[in-house]
Amino acid sequence: TLEQALAAVTPADPRLVVVAHSMGGNILYDVLTHFRPDIQVDAFFTVGSQVAFFEELKLFRSSDAALPSPQAGKAPKPANIRHWINVYDLSDMFAFAAGQVFDGAQDFEFNTRKGLILSHTSYFSTPSFHERFSVRLGGLFT
Q: What is the pLDDT of residues 43-80, one digit of tens each?
């Protein structure tokens, strides 16, 4: 699917925007940082994802054991990702903020208002999520 999205980039529609939920964020991060670092992503949205947690556990092929640390700072945002927006709900036990682990990742809290059990699967079924997504995406390229 990532290859299909890349092939669909045209001069009339030149931006590659990737949205990943939950484990999809981890998979895409690993793909973009190890397997396909040649793919340039204009906007990488992780939603309810564990990328920062996995990085702290050093589970990615590109993980650096020295980062993040008080001495060396945060792990860098991958060079092939122009903008990274990470969305999480404090009620979602599977969602983690990324900005404290990755330099350049922007965190946005979103309250699905669904509670502990349903929050993780409720982002995309909430109309206000799509409204805020549109505003965030539009703000990246103006």
A: 999 999 999 999 999 999 999 999 988 888 999 999 99
In angstroms, rounded to a whole number, what is the distance separating the alpha carbons of residues 142 and 38? Answer: 25
* DSSP, res 65: T
- CB–CB of 91/119 below 8 Å? yes
The tokens for 83 are: 């903008």
Question: Distance (Å, rounded) from C-alpha 136 to C-alpha 49?
Answer: 18
Cα 87 to Cα 47: distance, rounded to the nearest angstrom = 5
The whole-angstrom separation of Cα 98 and Cα 17 is: 18
pLDDT tops 90 at residue 99:
yes
